[in-house]
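Task: sequence design from structure.
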């Protein structure tokens, strides 16, 4: 059945410009109502992938399917109705300054031949959905950045798309406004069961919004999976680099003194990753109370993947209690414990 088909499917997609390979053997699928983030350093191929996905760029080889329809070699005229199934949100809003908010939102419907009465009605409904019904007759110059992006989202939803593509949609916004836009996109996803694809370099946006993440490097997929798994256990060096700002690290004063083999009076340094309820438990107090292990907190933080807390900490414990501590932490429900090395305080 068509409803069971992926909304998006890439099959061995390659894109070259002359001899320069921008995308190489890209394959993935995205199901209805999923939110998927695509990340990578500048030049990784994110924008070209997005353009192939929107039918604005033709792959050199491979297939791009939208709702089971292969759009790869369709003529321009045949692409028009398929593009209407795709809403686009841009970094700098791309609103028409000469039109008020209502007419900006209604523009795709006007192009599609919808009557004025129907398109104005739809535009007003969408303004309610994105939370700015009082801005209908304002012009873009009278709006804040967050309000402009809400108008952009409403316009992208005007034609009832199956897919919403967000190209660095929050990069021009301050952190508070970014969070409000993320919350809006989650509400839209839940209410409309809309599939959303994010192209971004902001790890915090992926962490708060996406279900899955795809990591690109030099035109290839090097890692993909659930955001909770990829962010808590990044396998590739690129993902680790992209996440570096969000991950706690040991201070240099400790790092430069770490050694592999324990000496007398050394402490073992443990890198501890935990998810869910265990993050809220008094880890160090429980080690002392239940296992008589005196642990020292060296560094750590708590982030969230949607509603799931993820804690990352570095603990120091007496070297002769290292294995006992690892076993105790595992019994307490900690996700991963890795020994970094030894240090003498």
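Answer:
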């Amino acid at each position: 059945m068509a409803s069971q088909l992926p909304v998006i499917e890439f099959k061995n997609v390659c894109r070259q410009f002359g001899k320069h390979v921008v995308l190489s053997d890209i394959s993935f699928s995205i199901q209805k109502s999923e939110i998927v983030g695509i990340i990578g350093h500048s030049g990784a191929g994110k924008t070209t992938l997005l353009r192939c996905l929107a039918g604005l760029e033709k792959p050199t080889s491979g297939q791009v399917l939208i709702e089971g329809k292969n759009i790869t070699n369709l003529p321009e005229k045949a692409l028009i109705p398929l593009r209407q199934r795709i809403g686009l949100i841009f970094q700098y809003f791309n609103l028409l300054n000469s039109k008020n908010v209502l007419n900006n939102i209604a523009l795709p419907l006007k192009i599609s031949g919808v009557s004025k009465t129907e398109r104005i009605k739809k535009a007003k409904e969408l303004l309610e959905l994105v939370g700015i019904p009082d801005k209908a007759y304002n012009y873009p110059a009278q709006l804040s950045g967050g309000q402009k992006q809400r108008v952009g989202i409403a316009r992208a939803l005007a034609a009832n798309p199956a897919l919403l593509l967000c190209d660095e949609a929050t990069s021009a916004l301050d952190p508070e406004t970014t969070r409000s836009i993320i919350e809006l996109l989650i509400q839209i996803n839940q209410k409309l069961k809309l599939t959303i694809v994010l192209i971004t370099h902001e790890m915090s946006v992926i962490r708060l919004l996406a279900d899955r993440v795809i990591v690109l490097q030099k035109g290839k997929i090097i890692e993909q999976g659930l955001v909770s798994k990829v962010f808590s256990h990044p396998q590739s060096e690129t993902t680790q680099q992209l996440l570096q700002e969000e991950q706690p690290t040991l201070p240099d004063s400790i790092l430069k003194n770490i050694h592999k083999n324990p000496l007398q009076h050394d402490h073992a340094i443990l890198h501890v990753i935990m998810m869910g309820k265990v993050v809220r438990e008094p880890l160090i107090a429980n080690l002392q109370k239940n296992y008589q292990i005196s642990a020292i907190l060296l560094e750590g933080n708590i982030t969230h993947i949607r509603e799931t807390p993820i804690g990352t900490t570095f603990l120091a414990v007496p070297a002769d209690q290292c294995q006992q501590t690892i076993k105790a932490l595992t019994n307490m429900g900690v996700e991963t414990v890795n020994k970094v090395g030894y240090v003498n305080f």
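The chain has a mean pLDDT of 91.
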